[in-house]
Amino acid sequence: MLDVEKNYAGSRRDEIIDVATEMFLEHGFAGTSMAKLAEAIGIKKASFYHHFASKDDLFAACVPHGYGDALSRVQDVIASKGDPETKLRQAIDILYDTTISSPVGRMSHLIAEVSRTFPGVARAFHEGYVAKQRDLISEIVREGVASGTFKQMEERLLMHMLMGPIVTLSLSREMFIQFDDLDSHFPIEVLRDGHKDLLAFILTHVQKDKVDEFR
Questions:
Q1: Got the DSSP string for the chain?
Q2: What percent of the chain has pLDDT over 90?
């Protein structure tokens, strides 16, 4: 059951977003009403409209909320003294943790569903997280290319190879979340570590012209 008895340190708006995120995950977008949200938080339904004009606007606010911490953690990795491969591996750890284990990350399937009728959701997610995350990862890769650690690779291909397995794993775990043996089917640590090894191998060993042969 949803646990909304929390000691929120943030603003009332943040409290609404936190509770709404959990309720969207438990009940889906269609199954979460403003009335149910108001009841869970303990405010009048009309009070919602001081913060959000509609449920669509509330959902759009939930999408990028919470990703700021992940971006800050990647920025800390970039600023560290590690070598580019170590930084990339650490950044991938953060992406797995955020996309698969956090409440906001687990909303991927809902984002895909809602964005069909409310494109602003997809835009909020892209501008609030995806584009910023891409820029940070690209910075790590450029550092690796400049130092001779990484081979040059087309950026869109690289980002697809980076995020594709993470998003697929997140969606798969949500699809089969009721399986008692979920971790045996979709083991996060095993798949994450294999993903890091494979991506590091490609970036350190495969020449750009060899990659182009497969495009």
A1: ---------S-HHHHHHHHHHHHHHHHTTTT--HHHHHHHHTS-HHHHTTT-SSHHHHHHHHTTTTHHHHHHHHHHHHHSS--HHHHHHHHHHHHHIIIIISTTGGGHHHHHHHTTT-HHHHHHHIIIIIHHHHHHHHHHHHHHHHHTSS----HHHHHHHHHHHHHHHHHHHHHTTT-TTHHHHS-HHHHHHHHHHHHHHHHHH--HHHHHTT-
A2: 42
Residue 200 has pLDDT above 50, yes or no: yes
Torsion of the alpha carbons at 102, 186, 28 and 69, rounded to the nearest 10: 10
Q: What is d(CA 99, CA 195) in angstroms, rounded to the nearest whole number? A: 15
Confidence of residue 54 (pLDDT cuts 50, 70, 90): confident
What's the whole-model pTM score?
A: 0.79
* Average pLDDT of the segment spanning 21-46: 87
Q: Give tens-digit pLDDT for 96-133.
A: 998 898 877 778 778 888 888 888 788 878 888 889 99
What DSSP element (H or E) covers 122? helix 119-125
Residue 91 near residue 71 (C-beta atoms within 8 A): no
For the chain, domains (ranges, CATH) are 12-62 (1.10.10.60), 68-212 (1.10.357.10)
